[in-house]
Specification:
The structure is a homotrimer. By secondary structure, chain A is α/β, with parallel strands linked by helices. Chain A has 11 helices and 11 strands. Chain A has 2 domains: 173 residues, Rossmann fold (3-Layer(aba) Sandwich); 161 residues, Aspartate/ornithine carbamoyltransferase (Rossmann fold), CATH 3.40.50.1370. Helix content of chain A is 32%, strand content 16%. In chain A, strands 7-6-5-8-11 form a 5-stranded parallel sheet. In chain A, strands 2-1-3-4 form a 4-stranded parallel sheet, with helices on both faces. Chains A, B, C: One of its GO terms (molecular function) is amino acid binding.
Chain lengths: 354, 354, 354
């Protein structure tokens, strides 16, 4: 075998440069108090933080992404309990990579069937065990309520990494981080910048979409219009109880449509997620929708996708400027590094101004 | 979502203060020689150590529990092979947490079906592999003899974390550590302090009970009476061959009864474990027995339970002073930290007097 | 239980002393340039390196084996993605042990069924995820092509730890390392030393054999003759297309035979591997062949075996001087430590002459 056949390039033209995170970093004034307060909060929902706290989180993520090698040991001697009772490789590795890059150790549970829970142990007892064994819990479970049953007994923080069809808040934070990295001017109402964002999917059935819309509603000044693109079949169950009303109450203007290509030319950001994972199985909502390099996208529009992708997102988009989904996935690691550092009482190790 | 809904308290009134471990620490004079000798021993049985060695182990555990942050790196660059051929989350995480808190790295095997053993590889060959790959092995297997087959080929220490229905010695050490933490005066015969301890279960069928009784028999001066509480169904198979005789030979006075509530008012310590795990299945012995806040317990009696619990231990006991089972579970991590440090030739890093 | 029953010896007479690695170390002049170049190469095939590069790798492995405690942190803050879609305990632990001994962290995937791949995610997308999450990938897959599909999208190095029945190059490097450790004079053509090596197995069906023969062919001066020992049933499919021709083109003289005991008295090195793992199942080729202490081996012949072993290799050989298979397994960890250090741009931390 020829050595040339096995050579590879570590660097190549892509959207991963440090220009964007550095611009975002410059756009936000550091205020460490917001980060220190995160040490006593579980992460449950896409809208649990106010605007100022989210901005500080995005700032810290951008700071880490601008210079990843600077922050290598704040979590030394800290242990993450990575409990994926609903199996997931992508989200699990994203959290575990973030934790390891901060110098921490990890204990993984990747199979619910062999745990005490399967044998009837209460989640409160499991939480009590976690209190003794680790410093932070990341939980994914097909059961929406497991998170809340554990929370009551925990004295260490827990992160909701997907609870049934309910929420997936750190995915939403990563989505928002990608949007602000792309266009930092959206952060401040005084800039008067706004985007039209289209979301392909069913807010009532997809936890990533539900959490994203909640996070988006914390920044209503940045959203000119939110367009939900869905198929006819899901029209009747598009929103959950009060879901639409709460978003509108916060100032989000919502339009719904079933015609993707008609609305595409208007959109600045397109969020696509045509598959909804529900435990071990999945459903396809809007499988009539797909994006490709031939779609009538605005020339400077960006596409976001929580991945893994199916046929709804053509690979011919990967090498176009519309591809921000890879940057979104990469940024999720830095966003989680920022969040985790603060949650386990190590914020002071990464703040410049104390 | 309101931030207050996701806030939590890291500290709260509980039995986890450092008063008890500090009292135990003061009650024992350090003698590091006993700990250094642990570097050439496998951990197999609840009675393999003499009284002096066990006291030094409990002292070191109490020293760590009194100040956990002091001991963070003695196992740096040491690798634990965590081999749970019989799946277990609780015991596995307890060992792995202990190892990580000491600064070591871990390789986990959580599924026997994919190993060479399943394909007919001999346990001696597996042990030879472990010699090359790690510094210590923790083994749980449904097969009682696996431990012994590996031991013969090992040049690194192995810990029995449960071999069939035979033994689970570190659980017993953790049980004893909880008892002495609760009442340090029991350690020395010269204090003339004694307890009545009741054990709900079947010594012949439960590895935790078998190991506990062995460990208990190393301190006969502390036991006024051991009461075995069992149901009629298990009367004929209550003890294994010579099991009762050996305990009595060492000076343990044994009574057996089937009437829990009649004996409860006499007991200082109640050990309950009404479920016996046997591989992937479990049997319930004495399911007529259960403890709750309404049980006629002595006012200062403590309850121990190896967990996970079923219906035999009511949650209304959790917030009573009888609850020492949570302290027992927590202490198990510190006990294992003490043991592991010594086993991999790092005792000198945690001893004050060398 | 008596303490003597649980005592063990950390040291005992064996082939693991440091005399052999030290002799190999002395036999090779350091030239770090070859090692630095490894930072931009995937590890795919047994013959991708030239002789000079392989010698430097063996030298570094011998340097580490001569003094393992000297090299404990070159991979600090580096993350290995250990992706064993085809389950394997032995090879996985060998790589993970090597990585941990260098101070790095690990994320393991031990089950393909729960990954996005099982749900239709492309391997290119998985590779893109790995780019963001880790610093190096070790991949084992039953599918020969998975490796190549990932390689194209990777910006971090990947190691082929077994791709179907194709190759297992680091096993071959470990095999060669064992041979040169045993007899360092074979390294240089000017010494005019040669061995006869017998390989029991089917080069067309066994990835370990295929890779070994390729690696062997990089050192044709050391091979007087290669004898392939096979059963009648596999005569028709013994070699793949061009496999034999390529080896002969490089100067390897090949003989084939079905009579093991007739050829054994001639052989200096016997490589036995009578079982071929193919995904979750295995096939036995040449099950009429086996080695034991009664086999007519040359008095100074050595036996190599990639392990795990079945009935083809009797345990009565373990305590004879023919047993170099344990040394081979042990050396594989050091060989992998050498390779991994170089692949993640840390070669300069272990080279004396820079």
């Amino acid at each position: 075998m020829n050595v040339n056949d096995v050579s590879f390039e570590r660097e190549r033209p892509d959207v991963y440069g440090d220009a964007h995170p550095k611009a975002l970093l410059r756009a936000i004034q550091e205020d460490g108090d917001y980060l220190v307060q995160l040490a006593n909060q579980h992460i449950v929902s896409g809208d649990q933080f106010d605007q100022a706290t989210m901005k500080q989180l995005f700032r810290l993520a951008a700071k880490i992404e601008s210079n990843p090698k600077r922050f290598h040991s704040p979590l030394q001697n800290k242990i993450l309990i990575s409990a994926f009772y609903e199996p997931s490789t992508r989200t699990r590795l994203s959290f575990e990579s973030a934790w390891h890059r901060l110098g921490g150790d990890i204990m993984s549970i990747t199979d619910r069937s062999t745990t005490g829970i399967a044998k009837g142990e209460s989640l409160a007892d499991v939480a009590e065990m976690f209190n003794n064994y680790g410093d932070c819990v990341v939980l994914r479970d097909t059961n929406e309520s497991s998170l809340f049953e554990m929370m009551d007994a925990l004295r260490i923080p827990i992160i909701n990494a997907g609870n049934g069809t309910d929420e997936h808040p750190t995915q939403a934070l990563a989505d928002m981080y990608a949007i602000f990295k792309w266009r930092p001017a959206l952060l401040d109402a005084s800039n008067n910048e706004k985007i039209k964002i289209g979301v392909i999917g069913v807010p009532n059935k997809m936890r990533t979409v539900r959490s994203l819309l909640k996070s988006l509603s914390v920044f209503p000044h940045a959203v000119e219009e939110l367009v939900i693109i869905h198929d006819e079949a899901s029209a009747a169950e598009l929103f959950g109880a009060d879901q639409r009303e709460e978003l509108e109450l916060r100032g989000i203007k919502i339009r719904i449509t079933t015609d993707l290509n008609a609305v595409l030319p208007e959109l600045d950001v397109v969020y696509i997620n045509a598959i909804s994972w529900e435990g071990d199985t999945f459903n396809t909502y809007g499988n009539s929708f797909s994006l490709s390099a031939k779609s009538p996208l605005k020339h400077d529009a960006i596409i976001l996708h929580p991945l893994a992708r199916g046929e709804e997102l053509a690979m011919d988009l990967d090498n176009t400027p519309h591809n921000w989904y890879f940057s979104q996935a990469r940024g999720a690691v830095f966003l989680r590094m920022a969040l985790l550092t603060c949650m386990v009482e190590r914020a002071e190790r990464v703040i410049d101004v104390v």
